Amino acid sequence: MAFEYEKYLRMEKMPHLWCPGCGIGIVLKAMIRSLDNMGWDKNDIAFVSGIGCTSRAPGYIDCNTLHTTHGRALTFATGIKMAQPAKHIVVFSGDGDATAIGGNHFIHACRRNIDITLVVVNNNTYGMTGGQHSPTTPIGYKTSTTSFGNIDPTFDICLLAKAAGASYVARSTVNKGKILEKYITKGLENKGFSVIVATANCHTQFGRKNKMGDPISARKWIESREIPLDKARNMKAEELYDKIITGEFISEEPEKTFWDNYNHSTQEYTDAYQTIIEKAQKSKDGESK
Amino acid sequence: MKKSVRFYSGAELVAMAAIDAGCRFFGGYPITPSSEIAEFMSIMLPKVGGKYIQMEDEIAAMGSVIGASLTGEKVLTATSGPGFSLKQENIGYAYMAEVPCVVCNVMRGGPSTGLPTALAQSDIMQAKWGTHGDHPVIALTPAYLEEIYEMTITAFNLAETYRMPVMLLLDEVIAHLSSAIDLPDKEKLVIKSRRKPTVTPDKYYPYDTAYGDVPPMANFFEGYRFHVTGLSHDKTGFPTTDPELVQADQERQIRKVSSKAHEIFDYESYLMKDAEIAIFAFGSTARAARVAIDNARKMGIKVGMVRFRVLWPLDEAEVLKVCSRSKAVIVPEMNMGQLSTIIEKFTADRTKLVKINHVGGVPIHPTDIFNEIKGVN
Amino acid sequence: MSEKINIPERHTKWEADIKIGKKDDHVVIGYWRDGCKGCGICVDVCPKQVWEIVEAKDKWSGQVVNIPDPSKCIKCSLCEIHCPDFCIKIY
């Protein structure tokens, strides 16, 4: 039986503004199916975004939607979650939005482990502004601001999120819609900060300058670079250069090692704040004894 | 009922008044000289079940209060000049999306890091023009501790009434001043909250002008499922580039305050009845001016003061009235002439305008003002 | 085709009704031409060459997709999952 996306879409706003073949639509569909898997009331979901191609997504979703300033989506989301801890907050962000202008907010949301699910659609470029290089543009590739090849090293968003303290981190690509759905669902289920990176194609801006100006060749380019995490563990760094490591980055084993966020609390932030409220209300003069 | 009298600092009064006004969320970032407000809020808010969060930067702090306000909370953030500059991005968002919030700016010297621990009144123009684009502005400038309490409550009431950010501009010396004051009776406080929609969700538009210039505001998670954006939008809240709709929306936003400017604008008139020399002042400078006026009056000089309690929106008719019947106007301020450039418009050539501009971080001494009064008399 | 399948109006602009596999196993391919931007991802992901690109003068991209032989469909739903424009439904 076909999935009824209409239940979650503002159909009067469709068709959406993304280019033909843009991967964001695929990620958005995975997101919608994941929300449906959770069975939440639409009224209890806040869908927040920043600025960029990806960030136009909330306009199409029939929830409480918030389209904020560039990079700041997580700050607004944090305010919403703090004020209404029982509600479900989803943030939809691009690579530039989440890791460049919003990089600070990104690592700190990870650090707090606040119960928000962040989906980063990584298309390796700034699509909306004309295809400038972003923190995830691979070295050597051409963009409108790196005509002679990009020299800026890239972020691995998943490793960054893990190191900063996110409690669920996974990556897949737009070629694997079902796996994206699985990861996003697990992110929504996770009580804590979840980061799901969806590597997507921007053939219009990024692909055009790198000999893959149509969606199919851009998707093939992504597919050719996918390496499953289990396989990548046994590979050398130079073999992994310019590869997309897919899989779940946070192990589910209860025993964590030094490399697994040794100093991060597993407590979710709004839960932790509840203990502050209880302490404050017990103390008489304000200071805790 | 016996009123309690004890020592309060300005910062503490902001926090107390915010909580009494119903504020239940504070998102902040430490910055001298406003950090004490955050410190007080971090203790007071959880006691009443409210939420305090220290964000990773000033921009984030502003973002978090807007997010919380959208869920229906009354919200406060506090900062100082450099942080106020950083916050402007999201302050602009709050104007565009019409989200009520109170921004307390404890002013210090600038530009840049400037004088972190010294006082100034350097942000009155930033409060007006800090973010890009045009928008209405309300800025309150208390001068006394009692006023800080009272005007913080007013700030929340105005933010909720007009559905917009309201600036509470303190100067460093007032925020750090401690004194024994009488707090007003809490039961007699007038507390206002935003107007909620009365229609069902299918008929609700977040910027519906059918209900006047300030549309009713639904909360997130209450079934209305509306869209909020910083893009120019139509009444449905969705982005539009229709020139007529964008024009109309901007005009309405400006009008919602300008049409009520005479109601919002507030000033204290001190010995102005027979005054030939008028002093325009606000904040701590007005306290010095008051001493100077008292001294000058003893010498028989007819001098008075218009002390702005609300600086923006300025009721220009009132200022013009004062300027046109005074032979001289003195504007003491702790900046390089931000207020006097406005007053200059109304003095024209008829009235002599004397500026006193101190930016060194020390208060303007009453003697400085007294000497100018003598000079123009 | 049976009335039991509730196809939303937006997705009934064009559809192919075929039988696959066992005799009661129906597939209805719902395709929303108005929303289709002719990107060709469905053509690419389909393992059975159900979809093909055809010229469309009324489209900005100049092309849409078509189903020359719906009986090839094995109901894997890859096209449905990967259509970025919410235009394909496999019932």
Kindly estimate the percentage of residues of chain B that lie in beta strands according to DSSP: 15-25%
User: For the report, how would you describe the main beta sheet of chain B?
Assistant: 8 strands, mixed
* Principal-axis shape of chain A: globular
Order of helices and strands of chain B: EHEHEHEHEEHEHEHEEHHEEHEEHEHEH
Labels describing this entry:
heterotrimer, A: 289 residues, alpha/beta, Rossmann fold, 8-stranded mixed beta sheet, 9 helices, 10 strands, 16% strand, globular, C: 91 residues, alpha+beta, Alpha-Beta Plaits, 3-stranded antiparallel beta sheet, two-stranded antiparallel ribbon, 11% helix
Could you characterize the architecture of this molecule?
The complex is a heterotrimer of chains A (289), B (377) and C (91). Chain A is of the alpha/beta class and 289 residues long. Chain A has a single domain, classed as Thiamin diphosphate (ThDP)-binding fold, Pyr/PP domains (Rossmann fold, 3-Layer(aba) Sandwich). Chain A has nine helices and ten strands. In chain A, the strands form two sheets. Chain A has an eight-stranded mixed β-sheet, sandwiched between helices. Chain A has a two-stranded antiparallel ribbon with strand order 5-6. In chain A, helix 6 links the parallel strand 7 and strand 8. The mean pLDDT of chain A is 91. Chain B is built from 13 helices and 16 strands. In chain B, helix 1 packs parallel to helix 2, helix 3 runs parallel beside helix 4 and helix 10 crosses helix 13. Chain C has one domain: 2-Layer Sandwich (Alpha-Beta Plaits), CATH 3.30.70. In chain C, the strands form two sheets. In chain C, strands 1-2-5 form a three-stranded antiparallel β-sheet. Chain C has a two-stranded antiparallel ribbon with strand order 3-4. Chain C starts with 13 loop residues before the first strand and ends with a strand. The mean pLDDT of chain C is 80. Strand 2 of chain A pairs parallel with strand 10 of chain B.
List the helices and strands and how they pair.
The complex is a heterotrimer of chains A (about 290), B (about 375) and C (about 90).
Chain A: H1 24-38, E1 45-49, E2 64-67, H2 73-83, E3 88-94, H3 95-99, H4 103-112, E4 116-122, E5 125-126, E6 132-133, H5 157-164, E7 168-173, H6 177-189, E8 194-199, H7 215-225, E9 226-228, H8 229-232, E10 244-248, H9 269-282
Parallel strand pairs in A: 1-2, 1-3, 3-4, 4-8, 7-8, 9-10
Antiparallel strand pairs in A: 5-6, 7-10
Helix pairs in contact in A: 1-6, 4-5
Chain B: E1 5-9, H1 10-20, E2 23-28, H2 35-47, E3 51-54, H3 58-70, E4 74-79, H4 81-97, E5 101-109, E6 115-119, H5 124-129, E7 139-140, H6 145-162, E8 165-171, H7 172-176, E9 178-182, E10 227-229, H8 243-258, H9 261-264, E11 267-270, E12 277-281, H10 283-298, E13 303-308, E14 310-312, H11 316-325, E15 328-333, H12 340-347, E16 352-357, H13 366-376
Parallel strand pairs in B: 2-3, 2-4, 4-5, 5-8, 7-8, 12-13, 12-15, 15-16
Antiparallel strand pairs in B: 1-9, 5-6, 7-14, 11-13
Chain C: E1 14-19, E2 26-31, H1 41-45, E3 52-55, E4 63-66, H2 78-82, E5 88-90
Antiparallel strand pairs in C: 1-2, 2-5, 3-4
